[in-house]
Amino acid sequence: MKRKDGFQGEKHIYIPEAAWKAAAEHNVFMSNLYVTSMGYFPNAAFHYRDRPEGCSENILIYCLRGKGWFLLDDHKMEVAANEYIIVPTTKVKMSYGADDHEPWTIYWIHFCGKDLEEFNRGFNLKLYDGAKPIHLNEKGIQIWESMYQNLQLGYNKDNLSNISLCLCHLLATFFYPEKHTSVKDQDERDMIKKTIDYMHQALANKITLEDLAAINNLSVSYFASLFRKATGMPPMDYFIHLKVRKACGLLFSTEIKIRDIASSLGYEDPFHFSRLFKKSMRVSPQVYRELRRKRSEASY
Length: 300
Hints:
CATH architecture of the largest domain: Sandwich
Largest sheet: 6 strands, antiparallel
CATH class of the largest domain: Mainly Beta
Radius of gyration: 21 Å
Number of domains: 2
CATH topology of the largest domain: Jelly Rolls
Shape: globular
Order of helices and strands: EHEEEEEEEEHEHHHHHHHHH
Distance between the termini: 17 Å
């Protein structure tokens, strides 16, 4: 079930090379650094890409949730939640994809330019650098969304000129994150991290939105708004997401019965658990277990 795209709620767009060439005729800066494609893949189960001849562009992947991996020749690099990776242009064989148990949610962007290798040297981007940690890059996400919305309006030279300038700003939020974060933003991020840590410890329990708001001494509506802004998901949806991730690991690595997995995650009704699991993973727990086993056996 390897998939390049086609995930529920995804966004992706590819800019024709001819559009950039036409824009560059009016503005030489356009050829220095430009976006070739960009996307957002939420809960990208079975996401996989194989590039046997490498990639002529730089690839930026920002992981919000879950995890994934990059394989360059025989060198494997993990990418976890709250990390980003920039793989510079290379002819080395590469592949990458989502983790089997905890598929990543990612923003990604491919960018190029006539002096791309000089750009990579200037910012010390090396092939095997691996992923780097970053607190929630709210500013970067805002810029990404603005770029995406702009491209949906078309590929005229003004739109593409704007995208090139926005790309520089977007990259700056990853290269110099401390320069794009306010004290208030940091306090809110610490609060969200504390809440998520609490959720991890309470996977076997039933907790409510009111419980989560109370531990942060906030009103329910304000807490829910902050949490959704930070993670892109309502608090209780995020809690279910964590339970499903835990279930994926148990289904793959143990023979525990599905009803017992449901019970261990606070669901007395296994059918309710199965419905929630299928809504998130798009396959039932039993089918997920069978698919994982087949894929594991095929790798030997």
